[in-house]
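In the laboratory, one determines a bound structure by crystallizing the protein with its ligand and collecting diffraction data. In a computational setting the workflow is compressed into a single prediction: the sequence and the ligand go in, and a structural description comes out. We illustrate the idea with uridine-5'-diphosphate-glucuronic acid.
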Amino acid sequence: MCNPYIFSASWYFQLTYAGESVGLRNLPKISVIGTGYVGLCTAVGFASKGYNVLACDVDGEKIAKINQGIATFYEPGLAEKLSESIQNGHLKGVIGQTDRVISETDLTFVAVGTPSKPDGSIDLKYIESAAGNIGKALKKKDAYHSTIIKSTVVPGTTQNTVKPILEKKSGKVAGKDFGLCMNPEFLRQGSAFQDTVNAERVVIGSFDTRSGDVLEDLYKGFYSEHVPAIIRTSLSTAELIKYASNSMLATKISFINTIANMCEKIPGADVKVVAKAMGLDKRIGPLFLDAGLGYGGSCFPKDVKALIACSKSLGYDPVVLDSVEAVNKTQPLKAVTFCREELGGLEGKSIAILGLAFKPDTDDMREARVIPIINQLLCEGASVTAYDPVAAPIAKTIFNDKINYAKSAFECIKNADACILVTEWEEFKKLTPEDFTKNMKQPILIDGRRIYDPETFKTKMRFVALGLGK
Ligand code: UGA
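The predicted complex, in structure-token form:
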């Protein structure tokens, strides 16, 4: 399957060395454009299994770090494999140089960002730019090359935006002269590298059968010990599968939050027990039924909005998704309402916030639920002290000196009038009622993620748990 390529001297040496070091021959050579979460995990995943990979980004600083074997973000397991792959020559980072990347590899994954526009639709500028560069490079390449879109793009994008750009810039015909696939990712932050090397499913949307076959073979080799279910489909179905999956998970969260909000009005009702019992029904399943302050992160909020915008542009009003979003928008503010009710007003009160990241085990604060909570508390005249095991540096770029940053959970709750638990970090689960009663001015705890046992806490302090009937 390998085509003869003209290599630069250093890359040729590395490929030869890498091939010999593990006795691997004829493995397709892979390039990845974009070295964010998805791109870098994909690049390192393949490299860690002996494939030769070029990781390409326009950001010179990122590439310099990658080439020193340093991961540009934290993901369990990634740093070790990255450093190993750089050292053994299976992975190499390059700045730009799309011509070289295309000429020296057999297939290219595109994993550039697709941010939201103000109206919720996705901004395709990075996809368009990557496609333009790949198209120009394909013009100079005689051998068949596959381009695989891994970025999350709305249905129709690969067919109607990427394909025309590739064809125009290359002067060639998709499906005949080059291959085109759409292969969505399902990686979770915090386990993105593990999810890369142990996938539950692989979705391959292909424009042409040949590139779909090439990609299927690649994955069968990559997952040789445990090949997951492989779904072959059209480009637009593959694109929709990604949005439908994330929107379904977001729907489960907004649904259980709706039930939680009802439980609060039903004496004796508890959403945790409702969710546990519901989850035992195989048709529902237990996951993503943790009621809380809503979903955040770089994916669910953006993807639900994009699917809504896409659906509306097609002339269909997705009322279910509108409601999912509406519930998620108001859910975090419930923590502020609880606080206001318990304290009889927020003016001049000192509020402790435990957790800033959008979920535990990450420092990512994109669309973190804590942002509207803190903004509202400040707006109503409260002073805020926050603690997060890792996200404080990011929080400082958002809130600057508008809030105080504590160095520990104890420092955070010291002399506070009330505390809101926003992110369910493991270290917060170990806190006892005494930790709060001994340190706070008034022991009022709002458990926004249901990590504490109400029976234990209720008897010792004023305790409000989300989704628990009074
Ligand atoms: C999500 C999906 O889980 C991945 O499958 C997908 O590939 C990824 O988006 C993506 O599109 O790239 P991620 O954003 O890393 O992954 O985070 P999740 O673990 O799914 O959590 C998202 C948010 O939902 C968090 O704010 C979390 O606190 C919240 N959540 C999750 C709940 O409120 N309740 C739950 O039961 C589960």
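Confidence is low (pLDDT under 50) at residues 1-24. Keep in mind that any predicted model is a hypothesis to be tested, not a measurement.
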